[in-house]
Design brief:
The chain has a single domain, classed as HAD superfamily/HAD-like (Rossmann fold), CATH 3.40.50. It is 38% helix and 16% strand. The protein is built from 7 helices and 8 strands. It has a 6-stranded parallel beta sheet with strand order 5-4-1-6-7-8, with helices on both faces. The longest helix has 13 residues.
């Protein structure tokens, strides 16, 4: 059973655009529907989630904390190494993991997990190797679609997520 979800951030939970204001402050936009599903996954169902991203941003820490994401790793070059550390801490195997990513730096991790997903606007190389390509783009519901799919195949009532 899938009990750990791993999320890339830029291009997966966001649309991939990075905006800086006149003071150099970075902003990102996250989809509230993705957030509702991640929060339910973590807080309502008690499963685990991880944000593993190649960039560093205080916004990612803030969003993860809001949603109940237990593991947040930023500035990561080797995502599979971090995933292995999480699995050891949680006493899980790759058979318990689903992940979503959108670009070349996600491929090794996506190939290692039981179920892999990408947004509809992921690069072609990622689309070619994942289990499921979402009908939604990054930052626009791809993560929600992944979570709903996993709940459905796990025989967890979808409507219980929202009630």
């Amino acid at each position: 059973m899938i009990t750990l979800l791993v999320f890339d951030i830029d291009g997966t939970l966001t649309n991939g655009k990075i905006t800086y204001d006149a003071n150099g402050v970075e902003t990102k936009s996250f989809d509230v529907k993705d957030g509702m599903a991640i929060e339910a996954w973590c807080k309502k169902f008690g499963f685990k989630a991880a944000f593993i991203t190649g960039r560093n941003s205080v916004i990612v820490d803030k969003r993860g904390a809001e949603l109940g994401v237990e593991y947040i790793y930023q500035g990561v070059k080797d995502k599979t190494k971090i995933l292995a550390e999480i699995l050891e801490k949680e006493n899980l195997t790759l058979a318990n993991v689903a992940a979503i990513g959108d670009d070349l730096n996600d491929i090794k991790m996506l190939q290692s997990v039981k179920l892999s997903f990408c947004p509809s606007d992921a690069v072609a190389e990622v689309k070619d190797i994942v289990s499921i390509v979402s009908s939604k783009s990054g930052g626009n519901g791809a993560a929600r679609e992944m979570i709903e799919y996993i709940l459905k195949i796990s025989d967890i009532e979808l409507k219980s997520l929202w009630l």
